[in-house]
Automatic annotation (TrEMBL):
UniProt xrefs under Gene3D superfamilies: 3.30.70.260, P-loop containing nucleotide triphosphate hydrolases
Keywords: Amino-acid transport, ATP-binding, Cell membrane, Membrane, Nucleotide-binding, Translocase, Transport
GO cellular component: plasma membrane
GO biological process: amino acid transport
Name listed for the protein in its UniProt record: Cell division ATP-binding protein FtsE
Keyword Transport: yes
UniProt lineage: Bacteria, Pseudomonadati, Pseudomonadota, Alphaproteobacteria, Hyphomicrobiales
């Protein structure tokens, strides 16, 4: 097997529970009429990790979240939170377990008639803590999210990013075992999104907080997740460390979700691409690990006589691992030269695909 494109790991149904699992789902199914919203979902979130679940609209993400916090009951399968099976519990038994999960939402869900500090302290009020204790904890959390000076402000006077910071502080008030983020940055501009994601990563590191994050944006996954699970039509179609899924997306849906943030063949060249004869072959080269770290192209030029041109591409860093895609144009008239180029790149653990030929686009 190509060592730089490791097979992505799957957690089989019935895997013995590990004590470090904060969440474990086994064979979760939920159907609405003819629609299987969840069709046998099994996955685990380990203590201290950030798991990202990504899928398109209608893939089953909301249903999964509702099963996790006990708002929805699965038709079959199990939901374990900190080792306790919750899917068959009644409302009264669910209440204390729900408090082990802090949630943040796309539209923040703050109470407009309450001050920032009272919003943050709300989960503690529900738990019956005295006011002085609640406010002390709120002050601590507002400092953590960088909003101490807004303690007495009302939500209406805050920006979207500030509102989400309050949402994060509130979600942490009762010291949850898990932070569940439901499209928490989808309503924010790119810069604010980056700052909120940086804050979540910071809190994950500082407090060792376990985070399960649901999104439809690969950029969010790339920024902060340790592991990613791709959901489509109620099934986990791919799962693994983020960099390995980025380096070697197996399913068409993952490839398509990655499309927006990975180098693509420029439209001008794609338009002229033919599967027939042409003067230049267009190669797509995926590299990761050592091949992406080293001087791949200058080594190619030194080892294989003859020309080639870089037409597009780049190396990105995902979880500090280089992951790249390059597009080369290689003269097609000399078949041996083309074969040598491909053989050299494959020997360097690159994945090479001949996309087609172009007559001439220079
Ligand atoms: N209460 C319901 N009644 C009928 N169908 C439902 C219900 N809830 C979900 N579905 C269907 O189940 C499928 C999964 O829906 P779900 O809301 O979980 O997806 P999603 O990934 O969260 O989508 P989105 O990102 O658009 O919110 C969809 O086909 C949806 O129409």
């Amino acid at each position: 097997m190509n060592q730089h494109f490791p097979a992505t790991a799957k957690i089989p149904v019935g895997t013995p529970e590990r004590p470090e699992d904060v969440v474990r789902l086994t064979g979760l199914k939920r159907r609405f009429g003819a629609t299987p919203a969840l069709d046998g979902v099994s996955l685990a979130v380990q203590k201290g990790e950030i798991l990202g679940i990504i899928g398109r609209s209608g893939a089953g993400k909301s249903t999964l979240i509702r099963c996790l916090n006990g708002l929805e009951r699965p038709d079959s399968g199990q939901v374990f939170i900190e080792g306790r099976e919750i899917s068959r519990l009644g409302e009264r038994e669910l209440q204390p377990l729900r408090r082990r999960i802090g949630m943040i939402f796309q539209h923040f869900n703050l109470l407009s008639a309450k001050t920032v500090e009272d919003n943050v302290a709300l989960p503690l009020k529900i738990e019956g803590h005295p006011r002085a204790e609640r406010l002390a904890r709120a002050a601590e959390l507002l400092e953590l999210v960088g909003l101490s000076e807004k303690a007495k402000a009302y939500p209406a006077s805050l920006s979207g990013g500030q509102k989400q910071r309050v949402g994060i502080a509130r979600a942490l008030a009762a010291r949850p075992a898990l932070l569940l983020s439901d499209e928490a940055t989808s309503a924010l501009d790119p810069e604010t999104t980056r700052s909120i994601l940086a804050l979540l990563k910071d809190i994950n590191r500082q407090l060792g907080l376990t985070i399960l994050l649901v999104t439809h944006e690969m950029e969010v996954i790339r920024s902060i997740a340790d592991r990613v699970a791709v959901i489509d039509a109620g099934r986990i179609v791919e799962e693994g460390p983020v960099w390995s899924v980025f380096a070697d997306p197996k399913s068409a849906i993952t490839q398509s979700l990655l499309g927006g943030i990975r180098p693509q063949l420029p439209a001008e060249i794609a338009r002229r691409l033919t599967q027939g004869a042409g003067t230049e072959a267009i190669l797509k080269i995926d590299v990761a690990g050592e091949a992406a770290r080293g001087p791949l192209l200058s080594d190619l030029a030194a080892a294989v006589p003859g020309s080639f041109r870089l037409v597009h591409g780049g190396i990105d860093y995902v979880q500090r691992q280089p992951v790249g895609t390059l597009f080369l144009a290689v003269p097609a008239a000399d078949a041996i030269h083309l074969e040598q180029v491909i053989a050299f790149l494959r020997a360097r653990e690159a994945r090479v695909e001949v996309l087609g030929h172009v007559a001439s686009f220079a």
